[in-house]
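Q: Structure for this?
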Amino acid sequence: MDNQTIHTLMNHRTIRDFSDRQLDQATVNTLLAAASQTATSMFMQQFSVISITESSLKHTFAEITGDTHAEKNGHLFIFIADQYRNYQIGQASGQSTKLLGEADRLLAAIYDASIAAESLTTAAESIGLGASYLGSILNEPQQLVDLLHLPTLTFPVFGVAVGYPVTIPEQKPRLPLTAIHFTNQYHLPDNYSQLLDNYDHELTDYYNQRSTNSRVETFRHNIMRQLAKSPKQRRTVLKVLRKQGFLLDEQ
Amino acid sequence: MDNQTIHTLMNHRTIRDFSDRQLDQATVNTLLAAASQTATSMFMQQFSVISITESSLKHTFAEITGDTHAEKNGHLFIFIADQYRNYQIGQASGQSTKLLGEADRLLAAIYDASIAAESLTTAAESIGLGASYLGSILNEPQQLVDLLHLPTLTFPVFGVAVGYPVTIPEQKPRLPLTAIHFTNQYHLPDNYSQLLDNYDHELTDYYNQRSTNSRVETFRHNIMRQLAKSPKQRRTVLKVLRKQGFLLDEQ
């Protein structure tokens, strides 16, 4: 079972280094059109995209997020969970908009933004472009909100940088399907620890053999590092979500 | 700019009615493999998939969610935001796992699950299968947690039903790109209201002309309906997220 689409999906890599060649407007529009056709929860179309094109803004974005790759090249799309557009529709008719701030509507907006981003990424990769998700956007959520002038009931979920790849790295192996797919109920395999041992070996081989940024690392190493520390401002994500009008249910 | 992948993405429709033909195991594995290769935040691989295959469980799922389509045919994948697998790694080494319950880690797990689901959906559509997202999973979050035996630090985000389509419906028009894409800062177009008028007309035409389930409806109608009411148990989403160990930052 193979076709161009499955080939594209199976060959996904994170690409961070882009050549100087810029995306033309037709390409940007094609990617956005693909994103806009994705499924949307309750047909509410609750996401937006902001392209950061101004170089001073890109520079500030890189400073805020600590993500210097994004500044140099590539087209920078920021995906926004957006209930503000629908809030405007409610307001114009004097309808209560209270439900838009509830937890399930925040989740729906995050789902919409995320699956749209993946369609954009897949479209990009299918025409030979490379892409990387910038989760670093959560390093400074309030500054991002200010930088992009985000109104109430919106939240910046992540960026996607898209450009012409300079090099294509080796593909990073993933956990085996037996560790992530279960039938009828949640149940980690009984040999999960053994399976992690094997996977850690596989990942160490990958890091040893790759041509750039070679290092000794396992999956467990990475998890332990992510458990040990996290940028301080990430602890403000919940506060900023509330400030934006979300998750007020229990207050 | 066109190829099979972009063609697949641009032709997305929600398919809810499937023939009796079941997905074979090779197809299920191909879809899961495509999903597993997607980007993952901080390389933490924080999502899982549960296939509901047992018919009594499918029946209970349909009762809980009110989604009767899912019961009859099609393969039912439930996507889980999953920090439990990494919690196990931390526990095994005596490392604090506190960070896994923070808001940013919940978001990362939801992103991972969502973009993996979109890759699975795109792979399915590329080989002629149809799919629908089942957001109805949020109608009864605690019952879903119980039904699937979900451990701490997991949450069921949505289902994806995949099968062989009986009919292919017309494609539902989306908001124009000018309403969802901005440059450098968030800014609804000055003619947003006019643009909504046009879009409402376009959508009414679509509903009038489509062969099944024809009705008079606009985008604004739908939004007003979604603002007016929502299933009662959806108000428990935040509580269930907390019970699962998430968003405890401020408690």
